[in-house]
Amino acid sequence: MIRALLCAGAVSLALIGSASAHHSTAMFEWGKEVSLQGTVKEYQWTQPHTFLWVIVQGSNGTVEEWGLEGMSPSWLGRRGWGRNTFKAGDKVSVVYYPLKDHRPGGFYVRVKGSDGQVMEALPQRGG
């Protein structure tokens, strides 16, 4: 009986830990699409989320580094994305959901490469 209770307690703790490990999307203005153009600095193909780092030239001549979070490699991989989808130096146009605190970043929705190919990064709703 004690052994069963200890096992149940261990399983409960493991589930609580894994449920709280994933962050929410509350930091983004989800659904508000904004665009930017820039040059890829780095594309990180990492779990649990990918990251696209883009150098963007502002209208006043300033240069900013933008950090854009994306879906997981496993989700993107099933839709044709890969570790080498973007390389440093690639020119891209990115549609993203901005951060609520207005820092240079967000969650990327779709990315258009210099070859004109558009890569969708979120599930598309039918209708």
Mean pLDDT: 85
- The total number of structural domains is 1
CATH arch. level architecture: Beta Barrel
Order of helices and strands: HEEEHEEE
The helicity comes to 10-25%
Q: Whole-number radius of gyration?
A: 19 Å
- Within the largest sheet, what's the order of strands? 1-2-3-5-4
Backbone structural class: alpha+beta
Structural overview:
The structure is a single chain. It is built from two helices and six strands; from the N terminus they run αβββαβββ. The protein is α+β, with helices and mostly antiparallel strands and 127 residues long. The chain has a single domain, classed as Nucleic acid-binding proteins (OB fold (Dihydrolipoamide Acetyltransferase, E2P), Beta Barrel), CATH 2.40.50.140. About 13% of the residues have low confidence. It starts with a helix and ends in a 7-residue tail after the last strand. The relative contact order is 0.19. The chain has a five-stranded mixed beta barrel.
